[in-house]
Amino acid sequence: MRIHIATDHAGLEFSTQLQHHLAAAGHEVVDHGPIEYEPLDDYPAFCIRAAQAVVRDQAAGVETLGVVFGGSGNGEQIAANKVTGVRAALVWSIATAELAREHNDANVIAIGARQHTFEEAATFIDRFIATPFSGEERHARRIAQLAAYEADGSLEPDPRATPGQADVLADDDSSFDPEAG
């Protein structure tokens, strides 16, 4: 499997170790940077490129996943999720690694390099790679809803609405104030 990885300065040491770990497991590793330590570097350029590569490879039929990491993994996950077609999940345990694939068909995971030992992170990544999407109808349905929203902004009707009543957010004259709750 091809694995695209990216980080920032906080995960650079992890990146080097991870490349060796994944290559030893037989994976093709594509590093999207950085290649040297720069304490003021910015993760979006690296993580977005890795996410774009995952989507591009998957569209071409290449079996591929992505791993992005930084100090917490939060910003890296957000950056990756800006790419259309990416479903990036923040992973902090074996269970979240499995569920990201089984239920969400995540194609990228984010991990906090300052939150885990390398051994923990490698275990999460290995489990993520080894876990297939379950394909269960309920999960596929939810992923399709996310993809539809991403593609054209369409959203399922508000399940709380009374039949025949417009979605409260669709009504331009609504007195609903999202700040007030």
What does this structure look like?
The protein has a 5-stranded parallel sheet with strand order 2-1-3-5-4, sandwiched between helices. It starts with a strand and ends in a 29-residue tail after the last helix. Helix 4 links the parallel strand 4 and strand 5. The mean pLDDT is 91. Helix content is 42%, strand content 13%. It is globular and about 60 Å long. It has 181 residues and is of the alpha/beta class. Helix 2 (43-59) crosses helix 3 (74-81).
Helix fraction, binned, reads: 40-55%
- Can you list the strand order of the major beta sheet? 2-1-3-5-4
In sequence order, what are the helices and strands, one letter per element?
Answer: EHEHEHEHEHH
Tell how many strands the DSSP assignment holds: 5
Sum up the overall morphology in one term: globular
Distance between the termini: 46 Å
Largest sheet: 5 strands, parallel
Gyration radius, rounded: 19 Å
pLDDT average, as an integer?
A: 91
Strand content: 5-15%
User: What class do helices, strands and sheet pairing give?
Assistant: alpha/beta
Summarize the structure in short.
This protein is of the alpha/beta class and 181 residues long. Helix content is 42%, strand content 13%.
Considering the chains and any ligands shown, give keywords for the structure.
single chain; 181 residues; alpha/beta; 5-stranded parallel beta sheet; 13% strand; globular
Summarize the SSE layout with pairings.
Blueprint (H helix, E strand, L loop, with lengths): L1 E5 L5 H13 L3 E4 L11 H17 L4 E7 L3 H8 L6 E3 L3 H9 L5 E5 L5 H13 L6 H16 L29
Parallel strand pairs: 1-2, 1-3, 3-5, 4-5
Helix pairs in contact: 2-3, 4-5
